[in-house]
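Bit of a strange request maybe. I'm writing a small parser for structure token strings and I need a real example to test against, not something I typed by hand. Could someone generate the tokens for this chain?
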Amino acid sequence: MRIEPLYLLFSFFGGLVLLFIIAPLLGMVLQTSFSDLTETAIDAEVQKSIWLTLWTSMAATLILGTLSVPFAYLLARKNFPFKRLVVAFVDIPIVIPHSAAGIAILGVVSRNTPIGSAAESMGFHFVGGAAGIMIAMAFVSIPFLINAARNGFSAVPERLEKAALSLGASPARVFFFISVPLAWRAILSGFVLMWARGLSEFGAVIVVAYHPIVTPVLIYERFGAFGLQSARPIAILFIAVCLVFFIVIRLLAKEPGDVVR
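Reply from user aminoacidic:
Good idea to test on real output. This should exercise your parser:
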């Protein structure tokens, strides 16, 4: 069977890209001993940091992500003035430096702002608290959910929704019993993407809430204080956690072979 030279070239480029991604991760694993990993895994500060990172990213995803799904449906189905501008605003957290995002968030939730003062009066605080971590994580990750859910709703045939409306179903019933079930794969993928992106956030979190310390900040702190030897095992353990979510994303997403040729 004749092999097309162009595909060989593409395969070579693909191999270089894969090497670019895999080589640093594999090198980090090979340079870390099993004893270093076990010592790090039983480190109370590391365990507490990983748990904090997991539950704050999950809470941020569930709370703000759930509120974003109806908004994504609106973007997919309705035309309104300045819609393109609104869509562009949704993507802003992806393109701005995340340290700048942290500064922007801090200007809204710090103690001398109305929101920060109201939070203080209710017994919790954003700056230096878990609530601040959640806000920072959600800010930088929410575009992934909105865009994934919007694409999912756009793929739902409008004729099915119109048929249900013509038969007397309310818009809310159509949304919950037709649109969401048909777009569930994209919505769920968006939730996983948002959670996984929140897990890895560093720049915005370190500005808003250095303590309590999440794992990306702990890695940075250990690296600055003790060097690569101390930071690397934490990074490997955390990458392993992130890898779980990557696998889930791949299982939920359609493979390229599903595309009609």
